[in-house]
Design goal:
six-stranded antiparallel β-sheet, 11 helices, five-stranded mixed β-sheet, alpha+beta
Length: 335
């Protein structure tokens, strides 16, 4: 028999009530045990999640090149993958240093002036160039995400080998100029711009080194290669930054593509180049001075690239037939 106290008087409980209280007590204990078990499971699950997060964080740190900088370009965080890629820097050596210690915009640009022009929530890509501790040049394709706290997260990918392969595919191995494949792409692009947007015309200068066969026959192909390399250097020094230079054929023919260039300007450029070559010091000392001939053609409405090339080639042929060491434009020559 169970009793309850009410105003200090003991009252016996009904058997059913006693049973109900006993059952209620049992349920309470069961709930407490379940709650304790749930907390234990929850704690275990949280620890497992934290462990997974730590493993993923380690994988990212060791394999993904990530950089965090403030608006001044000061490095706030850098992953192990990026420090190892730069040739052995420790993270502590890079934190609070400028991003330029790792890489910068090619050709003397300012990386942060580019980064700070972006917009929050609109990731964009830039190309950076750097040199590791061993003097090896590398290129990084970087995706930049600006954040509201005046910081930027930069995720990098090494594209050095990709760019090298592209350069090999688009560059003449001997002279370092563009090859025929890549200059054809430039011609196509300029023709499309001229046709679609009615931009100022572009011009072609087709250049041939006079009597080059004599150099090969007399002094050998090694001397001939030296002459071609020197000739390419003279050409590139005499053009504007916006112009494109290429080795057009497998021999002594070269090409310049000059965007936004009227015939008068292209012709003047050709005459100046002819004069520069003829007045240059002897190529290899034993070869002596050389000259070149140039044919000029300028884009016109409804004139195709093929027609421009034929016109430039005809002008070059006319220059050679009339004494060499000169530039000819059929537009002037046929007047």
């Amino acid at each position: 028999m169970t009793y309850v106290v009410y105003h200090f008087i003991l009252f016996p409980l009904h058997a059913r009530t006693e049973n109900a209280l006993a059952l209620s007590d049992h349920e309470t204990k069961t709930k407490h045990n379940f709650f304790d078990l749930s907390l234990e499971k929850l704690n275990t699950k949280i620890m497992n999640i934290l462990g997974e997060f730590k493993r993923y964080h380690q994988i990212v740190d060791e394999n993904v090149m990530i950089l965090k900088v403030d608006k001044e370009g000061t490095i706030l965080h850098v992953t192990t993958a990026l420090t190892e890629h730069t040739g052995g820097f420790e993270a502590e050596e890079l934190i609070w240093c400028s991003i330029t210690k790792i890489a910068d915009i090619p050709e003397g640009g300012d990386v942060m002036s580019v980064v700070n022009k972006g917009e929050i929530g609109k990731p964009f890509c830039i190309l950076l160039k750097g040199e590791n501790n061993f003097g090896r040049e590398f290129w990084l394709s970087c995706k930049v995400s600006l954040e509201e706290c005046n910081t930027a997260t930069i995720v990098c990918e090494d594209v050095t080998h990709k760019l090298s392969a592209e350069k090999l595919a688009n560059t003449d191995e001997l002279t370092g100029l563009m090859n025929r494949r890549s200059i054809n792409a430039v011609l196509k692009k300029e023709a499309q711009l001229f046709e679609r947007y009615k931009t100022p015309p572009f011009s072609i200068l087709l250049i041939d080194l006079d009597f080059f066969k004599r150099v090969n026959d007399t002094y050998g192909h090694q001397a001939g290669d030296e002459v071609l390399v020197r000739f390419a250097e003279i050409i590139t020094k005499g053009i504007r930054e916006t112009d494109y230079s290429a080795r057009w054929g497998g021999g002594e023919e070269f090409m310049l593509v000059c965007p936004n260039t009227m015939m008068e300007n292209a012709y003047s450029m050709a005459i100046k180049l002819v004069q520069t070559v003829s007045e240059s010091p002897p190529f290899p000392p034993f070869v002596g001075s050389l000259t070149c001939s140039i044919g000029v053609s300028t884009s016109e409405e409804k004139k195709t690239i093929e027609q421009m090339l034929v016109e430039a080639d005809s002008a070059l042929y006319a220059a050679k037939e009339t004494g060499r060491n000169k530039a000819i434009s059929l537009q002037y020559y046929n007047r």
